[in-house]
Design goal:
The chain has one helix at residues 2-20; strands at 27-37, 40-48, 54-58, 72-82, 87-96. The N and C termini lie far apart (66 Å). It is α+β, with helices and mostly antiparallel strands. Strands 1-2-3-5-4 form a 5-stranded mixed beta barrel. It has one domain (27-96): Nucleic acid-binding proteins (OB fold (Dihydrolipoamide Acetyltransferase, E2P)). A hairpin with a 5-residue loop joins β2 and β3.
Length: 99
């Protein structure tokens, strides 16, 4: 009986942990860089999964490209948005937008 209880506990814990490790979705938007300060860019949203006009984007997640004011970029983020002015996100990816 004791072993059955342990077995049920281990299986229940395993199923719980598997459910908690579900991969999060990535949301995207496209916009134009209006200003760059250090590794942060102020991006004017043109289209995508975010509601708002200006978003702070962390450019340091892409170490291969150099971004300039006026560039159109595609930004991937985790879906959470901090309601501030400008909006703030957790940047997951940044790349040049396709023309």
């Amino acid at each position: 009986m004791k072993y059955l209880f342990r077995f049920v506990c281990v299986i229940s814990l395993s199923l719980f942990l598997v459910g908690c490790t579900e991969k999060a979705d990535t949301f995207t938007f496209t916009g134009k860089i209006e200003r760059i300060t250090g590794t942060t860019a102020l991006v004017l949203v043109e289209e995508g999964d975010i509601q708002g006009s200006e978003v702070e984007v962390n450019l340091s997640v892409n170490t291969e490209d150099t971004f300039l004011v006026g560039d159109r970029i595609e930004v991937g983020y985790d879906g959470s948005v901090m309601e501030s002015a400008p909006l703030q996100i957790k940047t997951l990816s940044v790349q040049f937008a396709e023309e």
